[in-house]
Amino acid sequence: MITFVGAGPGAADLITVRGLKRLEQADIVIYAGSLVNPALLDGTREGCEIYNSAHMTLEEVIDVCIRGEKEQKQVVRLHTGDPCIYGAIREQMDLLDEAGIEYEVIPGVSSFIGAAASLKAEFTLPDVSQTVILTRMEGRTPVPEKERIEELARHQATMVIFLSAGMLGELSQRLQEGGYAPETSAAIVYKATWPDEKIIYTTVAQLEEAAAANGIHKTALIFVGEFLGDRYERSKLYDPTFSHEYREASK
Ligand code: SAH
């Protein structure tokens, strides 16, 4: 059995209980070395084989999984955050299917969730935005034309931009082309939940300068939207004059 595990955003104790159990029982761990906290490997068994996938191709990763399966070993494939977000797990699962190997997926706390906690922010504020857009700028991986930043920006929803910290000048320009005012609130969260985390509050127009002033060019998320501001309506759920299935309105 191969287990894909979300390692969480950084802090070693933000892995799930289930993920940690699998990790502690593993005979082989293949971890995404660029972003997974190596402290998570401290709890692995004596003699556990550890591979850093940063130095491996897809085929090499799958070869380790296939060998592990043949040797009836427990293999954990440890991904940063949650594996469903830019985790490239689909191609691994498809090759495991071809090889007739079973696998399971254990979710993790994605970095955008870890960063929300660091920001002490709520992405879905009544009257501000009820939608969260997770996206990226194109790099070597293309982004479909209909998902261009300018197009997504038109919604003025809460936006979270991954994998783009090295392209903030262009990001800022394209967000503005999509309709965000230059002074729209933005935040850069570098290494959310790691000991060297940095949070920078800025504006859409100032993204590039703000990152440069703080020496940030990777491992950061960009947040854009008025959820970072002060204006919102109170929720209906906790409104004293509003009844629902579990609570009668007070008179
Ligand atoms: N599966 C991961 C994302 C992998 S893509 C997840 O769920 O979080 C890698 C990108 O995620 C980085 O370029 C960066 O934009 C973001 N990222 C990952 N960990 C981060 C962290 N702790 N703080 C800020 N951004 C992070």
General description of the model:
The protein has 251 residues and is an alpha/beta fold. It has 2 domains: 2-106, Tetrapyrrole methylase, N-terminal domain (Cobalt-precorrin-4 Transmethylase, domain 1, 3-Layer(aba) Sandwich), CATH 3.40.1010.10; 111-228, Methyltransferase, Cobalt-precorrin-4 Transmethylase, Domain 2. Helices cover 25% and strands 20% of the residues. It has 7 helices and 10 strands. Strands 3-2-4-1-5 form a 5-stranded parallel sheet, with helices on both faces. Strands 6-7-10-8-9 form a 5-stranded mixed sheet, sandwiched between helices. Helix 5 (149-153) links the parallel strand 6 and strand 7 (158-162). Helix 2 (58-70) packs across helix 3 (90-98) and helix 6 (168-177) runs antiparallel to helix 7 (207-213). The radius of gyration is 21 Å and the shape is globular. Bound molecules: S-adenosyl-L-homocysteine. S-adenosyl-L-homocysteine binds at residues 9-10, 35, 79-82, 85-87, 110-111, 114-115, 162-163, 189, 191-194, 219-221.
Which tags fit this structure?
precorrin-4 C11-methyltransferase activity, five-stranded parallel β-sheet, Cobalt-precorrin-4 Transmethylase, domain 1, EC 2.1.1.133, binds S-adenosyl-L-homocysteine, Cbl_synth_CobM/CibF, about 250 residues, Methyltransferase, Cobalt-precorrin-4 Transmethylase, Domain 2, 10 strands, 4pyrrole_Mease_sub2, 2 domains, five-stranded mixed β-sheet, alpha/beta, globular, Siro_Cobalamin_biosynth, single chain
